[in-house]
Design a protein that fits this description.
The structure is a homodimer. Chain A is α/β, with parallel strands linked by helices. The radius of gyration of chain A is 20 Å and the shape is globular. The two termini of chain A are about 20 Å apart.
Chain lengths: ~300, ~300
C-alpha cells in the first residue's frame, strides 16, 4: 500500500527503529524550533544544533531531550553551514535543515565542489509533496524552487528524483505527467519536443516500471473525465502521481497556490544532494517545516537501507 | 462599492435596462445551450444563434423565448465564425460566444485584418475573474490563454485591459501584482527588468490611479502577513486585485488549478477585441460558460455606455 497521507507517513516514521539525525543550521527562529521539537516529541529524529554557541545553548526546551540533542558551535553562518555539511559527509547527520540564515549561504556550502553535498554530475533540484483536501492520496511535483528553465538533461534528472521519491512512498508504478498548457507537440515549441523525447525514453525503459506522458494539462493529468471530454487518450488515465512543470514560474506559482488558496498541506526538500535538505522560507510556518522534515526523514531512512 | 462576487454581478446585469445580444457560434453542445438558456431566463441577454440551419432551428428550448432569439444560418463553421464577427461589426451583437467549433476557426475570423475584430495595433489577450471560497472579493488575472511569452509591449497591453476590467467592476484604484517566484530584480532575468520598467511607467501615470508592483510572489501579493514576514514593503499591501503572470505556463496552470483544486469559480474572455469573446473549452461545464458569459456581458454593457 502506498503512503497516501501525511498522518500515515508520521506513523511509518514512528515505527522506524533507527532514528535519523537532523543537522539544524542556525535554528534561531521559532517556527524551526517548533518543528524540531515536534520531531523530538514524536521520537522520529535526533538533533544536532549547529550555530552560535550561546544561542544554541539557550534553547532549553529542545535540551530537555538530553543526549538526543547535541550542540555543535560555529561562529558565523558560513561556518555553521560548512559544519553541518561536514556532519552529513561524516555520517553524523542524515538530513540538513535550514534555520535563520540566507539560503545562498547554505547553498554555497552544499555546492562546494570538494566538501559539499552534490556529487559531480548530479543535478540540484527540489521535490514537493502535497496533501489536498478531499484527496485520498499524495501528489508529488517538481521543480518549484531551483531550476528556472530546465534543459532536457535536467528534466531527466528531475523525473529521476521524482520517480525515486514516489517509489519510496510505495507507489510501484509512478505516473508522471509532463505539464504544459496544451496537449499538442509543436515543432516551434522546444518544451514539447523535450517532452516527446522524455516519453520516448520512458518507453525505452529509462525509469523502469513507470508511465510517463505529456505534453498534457493539469486537468487531464488529474481527472479522467476532463481527459475523456477533451478526447485525450493518455495512459495516465487522469491519475498522475508526479507532476513535472514546464518552468520554475509555473512550478513555484503552483507550489504557493496549493497551501494559500487550496488549503493543501505541502512539504518540500532539495533533491540531488547526498541527503535531503529542508530549505523552508521565512514565511513558512512550523507545520510546513515539520511536514518537510518528516518527508526528508522518511526519504533519508530509505536511502540508508 | 466594487462588485465583489458573481452573485452581485448577476444582480447588476439584471438591473441593466438594455439587454446586450450574444452571437453564439455553432451552439451545438449541451453546456453552451444551458449557459445561453440561463442568460435568457435571467433576462440578461438576447441571442443570435449562428450555425447550421437545421441544427439551430431544432433548439426548441431556446426558441420558447420568441423574438429574443434570432437564427442566422451558415453552412460551415468558417462561415458561421465570419457571420458572427460581421454581426458584431454591424452593431447587431455585443459579445461573441464559441460553441462547438475549433478555436482556431473562430480566431481566424476574429483576426482577419479587413473584416475581423482586432483593430490594428491592439494586442489579443485574455482576462479572467475568479471567486475564491471564503474570499470577500473577486480576483482578476491575465494572461492564461493567448500569449506564451509576452514582450514588454504585450505586458503593457495586458495590464491596460486588466486595469480597465477592474475599473468596470468598480475598483477605483486597481492594485496590479507583477508575479514572479522572487522579489528580486535580477539583471540576468529579463522578466524582472520588464517588471521594473512597468513599475516605472505606472509611476509616470501610464494607467492613472493604480498601484503596480513587482516582481512579487503570489503570497506577498495577496497576503500582508507573508509580505511582512519576508520583509517586503510593497505598496500593494497584500491586497492585489489583478495578477499579471510571468508566462503562459504559469498563468494557464494557475487558471486550471483554481477551479479544479481550490473550488473557485472562474470566468474568462478574450480581450483586445472590439467586443468580449467567450472562448470556453470543451471541458468547461455550463456553470463556467455561464459565468464567462455574464462577465463578458457586463464588460460589453460598459463599453457601450
Amino acid at each position: 500500500m502506498p503512503i497516501h497521507s501525511f498522518d500515515i507517513l508520521l506513523d511509518c516514521l514512528a515505527d522506524t527503529k533507527r532514528r535519523p539525525r537532523i543537522a539544524a543550521v542556525c535554528p534561531y527562529d521559532e517556527s524551526t524550533q517548533t518543528a524540531l521539537l515536534r520531531a523530538l516529541e514524536r521520537r522520529i529524529a535526533d538533533l544536532v544544533l549547529v550555530g552560535d554557541a550561546a544561542h544554541i545553548a539557550s534553547l532549553n526546551t529542545l535540551q530537555t531531550y538530553g543526549d538526543r540533542v547535541c550542540l555543535y558551535p560555529a561562529t558565523t553562518a558560513d561556518e555553521a553551514a560548512a559544519a553541518a555539511v561536514r556532519l552529513v559527509r561524516q555520517g553524523e547527520a542524515d538530513i540538513l535543515m535550514k534555520g535563520l540564515l540566507n539560503t545562498d549561504t547554505l547553498l554555497h556550502a552544499i555546492l562546494d565542489k570538494e566538501l559539499g553535498l552534490l556529487p559531480r554530475g548530479r543535478v540540484l533540484t527540489h521535490v514537493s509533496v502535497a496533501e489536498l483536501p478531499g484527496w485520498r492520496r499524495l501528489l508529488f511535483f517538481s521543480d518549484v524552487a531551483v531550476i528556472p528553465q530546465p534543459t532536457l538533461d535536467q528534466r531527466r534528472a528531475i523525473i529521476d528524483y521524482g520517480v525515486t521519491v514516489c517509489r519510496t512512498f510505495g507507489i510501484e508504478q509512478p505516473r508522471v505527467a509532463l505539464l504544459h498548457y496544451s496537449e499538442k507537440v509543436n515543432e516551434k515549441c522546444p518544451l514539447t519536443l523535450d517532452y516527446r523525447e522524455l516519453v520516448r525514453r520512458a518507453e525505452a525503459d529509462e525509469w523502469g516500471n513507470t508511465i510517463v506522458d505529456g505534453p498534457i494539462d493539469l486537468r487531464c493529468a488529474l481527472d479522467e473525465t476532463s481527459e475523456r471530454v477533451k478526447g485525450i487518450d493518455s495512459p495516465l488515465g487522469g491519475r498522475a502521481d508526479f507532476l513535472h512543470f514546464p518552468d520554475l514560474e509555473a512550478g513555484n506559482l503552483f507550489y504557493k497556490t496549493l497551501p494559500f488558496l487550496c488549503g493543501a498541506r505541502v512539504a518540500g526538500m532539495l533533491a540531488g544532494t547526498l541527503c535531503p535538505v529542508v530549505l523552508s522560507s521565512r514565511s513558512d510556518n512550523a507545520d510546513d517545516k515539520f511536514l518537510s522534515l518528516a518527508v526528508a526523514l522518511f526519504v533519508a531512512s530509505h536511502q540508508h537501507t
